[in-house]
Each structure stands twice: as C-alpha cells, then as structure tokens.
Specification:
By secondary structure, the chain is mainly beta. It is built from four helices and 25 strands.
C-alpha cells in the first residue's frame, strides 16, 4: 500500500496530528516534545510504548502508523476497511498497546480517540495540526475497478441461445446467474463495503451511518490536558506558530536549520506554518557553572518568591546566591512568541553586554530589552551568558 501521497483528512479535536515522510502520529496531548520523541522511534513499537510510559504525564491516547504497522495505545480505536469488509480495533483493554499489521488489500483506515461525525477540510501533507484522529484511503498498484454503469447483458460471456432451426423445442437464452453488481451508492454511506478500492477519497464513505452513530463533540482528555490545568500558570504550554522539519521537529518560523537535526528548512514542503507548543528558547550559563533553561517567564534574585507574580503562579522563581547588591526580585525574564526579553526590577541596575562588544549598557529600569544569542548579563555581582537554541 502507498500512503505517502494520499490525502489525510483530519478529524477535529484538541489533540495533535503529525505527519512526516515516514509516519503519522495521533496524540491526545499537545506536548510537542513528546510528539517529537514519538516521531523519532515510530518504527519501533517497543520504543514507542516505553516513550509513552516514561512521559511525566502520559497521554490518554496515541496511534502510530509506520509502514504497514499500526500501533494503538490507550483510549483510541481504528476501523480498518478491506476489500472483503471492515474490522474495528481498540486498545482500551490492552495496557501495553495493540499492534496491527495492515494487509495489502486495505482500502481505507479511520483512527480516532472518540466517535465522530465528519472531518474538516484539512488535507495534511506534512506538519502538525490540532485534531483527535484522521481518515485516509489507500492506493494500490493493481488497476481500480470501474464504477461506471454495469455492462449490458449481451456483452457478458454466456452460452449462446440455441437457434430455433437447430432444436425441435426452442429454448430461451439461459439466464445470467451473476450479473455485475451496481456501483456503490455514495449516498448510503456504505461504499467502502464494496470489493472495489476507493476511486477517490470521500470521507462520508468512511464514517458509520449517521443514524447509527450520532455526531458528538470530542471527549475531554483524561491525561495531558487536565494535568496541564493543575500546574502553575507559568508552566502551562504556550502555543505559537512555527515550521516542522521532515523528522517532525518544531522550529522557529524563520529558522534556516532545524534546531535538533540540523536539517535545512524553508525549502520545499518543510516550510509549512503550523501551530505547536513552544520549546525552550535557550539557556543561561552562570559564572558558578549553574545553568538555567529559558522555558517560561521568570523572576531572578535573592528571594524571587517575594514578588507577587511568583506568589500567584504567573511567573517562575530563579533564586540566586548573591550579596546584598542583588535585590530580592532583581531581573525579569519574559518570553514573547519566539523572543526573550529582560527587564531591570532593581535599584542597583542590570548591565547588558552584546557579544563582540567590550562596553556594556545599563538597562533603563522597567523597560524590556531583547536578549540575543551570546549576550552577557551582569547583575548583583553575578554574570550569566545567554545561548539561544
């Protein structure tokens, strides 16, 4: 079967659907770091299961399609349509997940975390979008069976009628026992039950009849989404727009190279703007060897918990060992989209030194200043260097 060039229809929802050259990932969580790890091990079902179980907040449902193998994990189901019928697979009762090998006569597949009524207009060729599942038809190497009107009876190979002159008792032409079946009726919703592969991708033919399965809203996630709500505000995921590499890594929308694999971006189909969870933007390396990952808004100082924004959970604390020259809340680190800004909150000041420039500049109190790769920050007799990802 060939699925690389086939249209992939997204079923709307709150999870993520990621498509690369080699795999398709459905995840009920919006944790892009987890999705990237799943893309990296998509060819190994055992590694996929270990990656899911090792996550701090395992997603409620995951599906991985790689080659002919389909792995389901958690509260997710798949309907496999073949030329001789359909088969439904669920992983709800299998803690270790379920692996299914797709046969060569598979004509269509629907994967979803809940019952669904219709797809949207998204045809995902590559990248990551929001959704709870997908539907896809498969192309086969053998010719498709025509869906035109059945041939007339005289064209069907059958015994010729006995001539009247050659028989004492003329016999009528023998009836045709197996006339060609009519083409599937797309309005009935059961076209995929036919032995013919889908001539074109029609999502209505992949769904159960509306009278049997009512249209429902996506079910609430029992894992990542609820867990995210329980965390402090500053730790909750932030969604931004970016581009995906062919390996499924999420990058700055104007990045020239992938921050993980080094792949050249912004060429061909890799430059597709999608929404995803913002990754860490960089790291601060301090003069005592300590490192701090720049992943959320932060107050740095001797006692950052004294700031009201740390107390209400809107910003994270970064406590530093320093002399009295450092204020309790000395420096504000803010993330806006893909950029990092610093603001002086102290009375003793903050000095910013750009890479390659000997003289530094004292920041105006209370005014955000952009932080660039290689910049050095001096405050309270402490020094740190910022390195962007």
């Amino acid at each position: 079967m060939i699925f690389r060039e086939q249209p992939l229809r997204v079923i709307p929802g709150t999870g993520t659907i990621t498509r690369t050259d080699e795999s398709i990932i459905v995840c009920s969580s919006a944790d892009m770091a987890l999705v990237q790890r799943l893309c990296d091990v998509a060819d190994d079902p055992t590694a996929v299961a270990r990656t899911i179980l090792a996550s701090s907040t395992p997603p409620a449902a995951v599906a991985v399609l790689w080659g002919n193998s389909l792995l389901l994990f958690g509260s997710i189901r798949a309907t496999i349509h073949c030329s001789d019928g359909s088969n439904e697979i669920s992983a709800s009762d299998a803690p270790g997940g379920v692996t299914h090998e797709l046969s060569n006569d598979t004509t269509a597949i629907v994967v979803s975390t809940s019952e669904w009524g219709s797809d949207d207009d998204t045809d995902l060729q590559r990248g990551t979008v929001r959704g709870q599942g997908f539907a896809m038809g498969f192309a086969h190497s053998e010719p498709e069976i025509s869906t035109s009107e059945p041939a007339a009876a005289p064209e069907v190979v059958a015994p010729a009628p006995i001539p009247v002159e050659a028989a004492a008792d003329p016999l009528p032409p023998p009836p045709i026992d197996d006339p060609l079946p009519p083409p599937p009726d797309s309005s009935s919703g059961n076209g995929v039950e036919s032995a013919a592969p889908l001539p074109s991708f029609v999502i209505a033919n992949l769904a159960p009849e509306r009278s049997e399965v009512p249209v429902r809203q996506p079910l609430p996630l029992s894992g990542g989404e609820e867990a995210a709500d329980q965390r402090p505000v500053y730790q909750q995921p932030v969604t931004v727009r970016g581009v995906m590499s062919s390996a499924g890594h999420f990058n700055h929308p104007f990045a020239s190279y992938c921050r993980i694999s080094g792949e050249k971006l912004n060429v061909g189909q890799t430059w597709i703007s999608v929404e995803g969870e913002r990754p860490p933007l960089g790291v601060l390396n301090f003069d005592d060897g300590r490192s701090f990952v720049v992943n959320w808004d932060t107050i740095a100082g001797r006692q950052p918990e004294s700031d009201a924004r740390v107390q209400d959970g809107s910003m994270g604390p970064l406590a530093l060992v320093a002399e009295q020259t450092m204020s309790r809340a000395h420096l504000l680190i803010e993330l806006k989209e893909w950029d990092v800004f610093i603001t002086d909150l102290s009375v003793n000041g903050v000095e910013l030194i750009h890479e390659g420039i000997e003289a530094g500049e004292k920041l105006p109190p209370g005014e955000p200043m952009p932080l660039l790769d290689g910049d050095t920050i001096v405050f309270g007799r402490r020094t740190c260097v910022y390195h962007s990802h």
